[in-house]
Amino acid sequence: MVMMADSARGHPASYGAADLARLTATVEAAVRAVEDPELPVSIGEMGMVGEVSISSAPSDKSGLVYDVRVTLKPTFSGCPALFLIEADVRSAVTHVVGSGANLSLSWDRTTVWQPKEVAPSGRAKLNAHGVVLDAPGEAMVCPYCGSADIEILSERGVALCRRLAFCAQCRTSVDVMGSARGPASLERSGLGQGAGTGKDLGMPGPVPLQLTQHPQS
Ligand SMILES: [Zn+2]
């Protein structure tokens, strides 16, 4: 077999399964490392990265054409940051495989993201940022003092996906993220309008940008 070099990247023209697996792992790592636009945590740590797969076929010019498929899971369907995340993921993938790849990026709206999908490292970073996850079956504790004496003050937090709470112990405001209140957040934001009732809230279709209405920290 004649191995032709890809002029841009130096990859052999024909990839074995092991090579493809290595490339896939590199792409997945790059995707997982993309930072959440709103919080100092990566989308991998947030549990937002689903399947990453790559197949390759020889192009008629030189080297290979990669078909890269990336599935992402939104933490919250109405999240205005999805567009930003998408752009960053595209750029991360392009950085690894080059601009000639066919990238198919999709948001999996068939499953609902759960706070338990956040990695321990991500949880620690969120806590350090004053954000606590509200996971079903888990006691919510203050990220600053560890007290469970937290009261939700408002369903309207600093972002659509967050609520404002207050710790009675250390008297500090706390951002709460997660739990089944996602759809309720969607409803109050107006993003679910026209999408019908509860069953549709997970799949609102095109989501208008609301960045000016809800400036992010
Ligand atoms: Zn506290």
Automatic annotation (TrEMBL):
Signal sequence, renumbered to the chain: none
Taxonomic superkingdom: Bacteria
Gene3D superfamilies per UniProt: Fe-S cluster assembly (FSCA) (3.30.300.130)
InterPro entries in the record: Fe-S_Maturation_MIP18, FSCA_dom_sf, MIP18-like, Zn_ribbon_PaaD
Residue stretches making up the MIP18 family-like domain: 25-98
Name of a matching Pfam family: FeS_assembly_P
Ranges where the PaaD zinc beta ribbon domain occurs: 134-177
Disordered: annotated span: 180-217
Name of the protein: DUF59 domain-containing protein
Species the sequence originates in: Nocardioides marmoriginsengisoli
